Fold this protein.
Amino acid sequence: MRLVNLSLFIGTLFYSVSWAQFAAADMRASQQIIEETTIIGDRSAARALLGSGALVDAEQMRAEVVTDVNQALKTVPGIYILEEDGQGLRPNIGIRAATSPRSAKITLLEDGVMISPAPYSNPAAYYFPTALRMHALEVIKGAPLLRYGPQTTGGVLNIVSTPIPEARSGVVQWSAGQYGQMDLLANYGGRSGAYGFLIETAQRSGDGFKSIDSGGDTGYRIQDYLAKLTREDADSLLSLKVQVSKEISDETYLGLSDSDFDSKPNRRYGLSRPDVMDNHHKGFLLRYQRLLSEDINVTLTAYRNEFERDWFKLSGGGSLIAAANAGNAEARGILHGLVDRDGLTYKHNNRAYLSSGVEANFDWDLGSHQIDVGIRSHTDEMDRFQPQEVFNQVAGQLVYQKTKAPTGSNNRLERARAKSFWLLDSWQVNQALTVHGALRYEDVNSRRRQFADTDRDQLASERNNATNVWLPGLSFGYQLSDSLTLIGSAHRGFSPLGGGAKKAEKPETSINYETGLRYSNGYFAEAIWFYSDFENKSENCSNASPCSNGETSGSFTTGAAVIEGLELQVGHVFRTSDKVSIPVDASYTRTKARISKNNPTSGFNRGDSLAAVPENVFSLRAALQYGDTWRHGVVVKYIDEMCIAVGCNRSGGGFKATESLISADYVGRYQWRPKTELFFKLENVFDRQVIISRTPDGARPNKRRTASIGFSLQI
């Protein structure tokens, strides 16, 4: 992948007009222009949305010392987490009807810009921003999410990076813990006249909490660097963000058989010793905001993200796990290194991604109407060139045999071009009623080219797909009293097929509804019912998350389906004195996700459970706080078992379902000096480990009990 020519990249901003900025930020002409882009803003704004939303704000991120985005998002109702490595390196996040494998069905943003490696052609999020440098997490569900796209079914997750401080200042946060864990976050920035700047780094490393039979590393090393520069005057703001990161992690696709998990859940087979992920990411964002008049604001954005990764790992390990689970002694002997095996294939899952685009967004303040209109032109691609190395297992050791050049699907290019348009109108009908209308248009063209030779002179096959779709939505909020609000919305959902789609294939679409009550008067409480009706629910197939038919590439349509549920959340700060407070927040989600019509083509029947959707999810956050001096907090999380393939409720869970998990984390903080805070964190207090995932290739545990200590220093 060629390095970006930065001067050319910056130039595109002034020669292109396409989409940008967020309606939910509602940056009106009468307001001050701000540098960071958010889709909600603060907790009070999240509790006033015309639709459901949530915010994991900077205070929660700091108080709970978040280093794993999975654990933070488990406190948000309507979100489903399918863990993989126990350390949050490859999150699998689902929101309502958008199921979780590789976070491919949600719209994933950082500072308002799509951050998945290739959001249209290959949305699986093998890259995910480093949780340690996240300032806040914003989630929007319901019809208002039509502002963002391309995934418009379940929800939007926006990661907010560290904003530039008003005065020159910085933070150094350092911690060390068990299993060689070490985390460092350092930033410094400020403003001088019209200019503002921020530099930041996040450094993470660890030895891993698993052990390999034949020895070897199971750890990780992450280096992440970010820089921001802004220039601001009375009516405009120009901002530039550059981010570079690198990760090397000794992670594998190979899990365990159930019997081996029961005896030693943190074990790894010797076959996984060579497995390693090596990836690099570069991100560039240039944004220009201008107040054209007292009533009109325009935002222009250009962005480019480059991601390259080579995940070298065993191929076909899942078949050995399945055989061992079925009682095959030879397969178990191979996994244990006791039986020789020829022809073991280790693939360089070597892929390069590019995502770039330009956006334009206009906000008009017309009094009772707030109009938001925008367009975006976007291109993304994935280059897959994956040679394979062949080893023999001899007396428990791997002996190299040969390297095979990429053939078939391991040598291909996929690309998507998309044009998007949106129009939103927030209408204050009267003092009690607000109505929000949304209309989105997506025009997507994808292409896949597979080559017959390594020089790519001979084309083996080609496929393409063209999709265009209109996505309307309507939401409302009606204030029944000063403290009680009725909300509701309906919208059409859409999920692109990806770069491997064939000409006749149709994308996943759905009709989505929500309605509920929101109470806020000292106490906060919210109850929201949601319902999604799919004509053609589909799964994205990959080695990491095989489809229900066993395929590991392309997509698989499971047929008509319904996902419905109830989200509940309550919160209050109890005060026993002027200085002592007890903040408590709880959330609960109950979901039913079922095939709604018999499908002879897929073989699924009405009532079959969908994959990767737990029925019950619960979280409780509580703390005892004494002013700004000390804080003791605990977070309790529960997640039900879930199917890893459609229909496990009918065929019997067995090896097709995960196990339920309840866990607790504790964080204690103490203000030692005016600018120095000490903290102690204990994750998974009761050291409970279960089969939290079965994909890819076998049973996998959640993180074992882990203690860490650290400090945060204001500079």
The helical segments are 6-15, 43-46, 58-63, 69-73, 258-263, 317-325, 329-335, 648-651. The CA atoms of residues 116 and 395 lie 42 Å apart. Residues 1-31 have pLDDT under 50 and may be disordered.
